[in-house]
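Propose amino acids for all 176 sites.
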């Protein structure tokens, strides 16, 4: 009998939410598990995000949804991002029913809820309806109480100090 897959939430304003999720993906892949990593609001074609390519090379399915974010790129339309996020979640629902993934990471999906591109109840339904044995990781700042209550693990990553506060820009291999 397969074991129950649990729900992880990595949230907070500190650095390391995506890094933690990628670390879990590498561990799972190393144990022969099937992994699907889905990012929201990221633009790998601009910033590289080499961690995505690394886990792809290790055998993970990697998908990017709702590329970019209107707060960072004013040319991106809020309605279009909302449509992409919601259609993306439906596509992921079908994908996980059609494939036997052991681990699904929804990186920055909590941002979609925070910024009203995805209704909280839609994400809570997705969590409730996930396949029994699927381990699910949700990342992003500002997880709601309901999202955290739906999880088995909640890690709150708090920024105490960050070089960006002193004008140090993102560094390849460390922040991206």
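Proposal:
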């Amino acid at each position: 009998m397969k074991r129950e897959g649990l729900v992880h939430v990595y949230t907070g304003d500190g650095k390391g939410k995506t890094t933690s999720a990628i670390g879990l993906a590498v561990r799972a892949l190393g144990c022969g598990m099937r992994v699907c990593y889905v990012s929201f609001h990221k633009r790998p074609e601009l910033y590289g995000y080499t961690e995505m390519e690394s886990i792809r090379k290790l055998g993970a399915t990697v998908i990017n949804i709702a590329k970019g974010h209107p707060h960072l790129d004013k040319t991106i339309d809020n309605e279009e991002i909302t449509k992409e996020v919601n259609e993306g979640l439906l596509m992921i629902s079908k994908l996980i029913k059609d494939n036997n993934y052991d681990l699904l990471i929804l990186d920055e999906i909590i941002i979609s809820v925070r910024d009203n591109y995805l209704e909280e109840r839609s994400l809570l339904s997705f969590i409730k309806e996930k396949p029994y044995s699927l381990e699910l990781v949700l990342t992003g700042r500002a997880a709601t109480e309901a999202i955290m209550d739906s999880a088995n693990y909640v890690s709150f990553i708090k920024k105490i100090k960050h070089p960006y506060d002193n004008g140090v820009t993102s560094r390849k291999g460390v922040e991206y």
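The mean pLDDT is 92. Strands lie at 7-11, 35-40, 61-65, 103-107, 135-139, 153-156.
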